[in-house]
Amino acid sequence: MAKSAIELDAIDRRILGALQRDGRLPVVALAGQVGLSPTPCQRRLSRLEAAGVITRYAALLDPARLGLPLQAFVMVALESHAEEVVERFQKALAARPEVLAAYAMSGEMDYLLHVLAADFETYAEFALKALLRMPGVKETRSSFVLTALKPPGEVPV
Known about the structure:
Elements: H1 10-21, H2 27-34, H3 38-50, E1 70-78, H4 83-94, E2 99-104, E3 111-117, H5 120-129, E4 137-144
Helix pairs in contact: 1-2, 2-3
């Protein structure tokens, strides 16, 4: 079921833009940047959170500086799309900390995974001993990131 878009005015968009650049902004500083006093700014912020526009606050970490320089995108095909197979695969996938993100996809493959690893040997161990043994996995194809030309950034508001 598709989520419906919420109506945003120019101030809402400025709030969202500012928070995407610095999610630690105190409300007073945020209010100053968007041209509001703190109380109305806080009300708007609360409304954006309640509406699910702002889903969470998080720090962006550099995987390489944390000893995880190898990034791979892995396409996964399942043997079956039976509900039980899909649920078991998704449950097994959710338990794997090296899987940074996972997407159900259209096309030839069923899932696209973003995987982090310390090195190729560690990735190979994950792929051979965990991923290929997950329930329902028929086939995988891995591609490795050589350089991030445009890492994830701001959602256009």
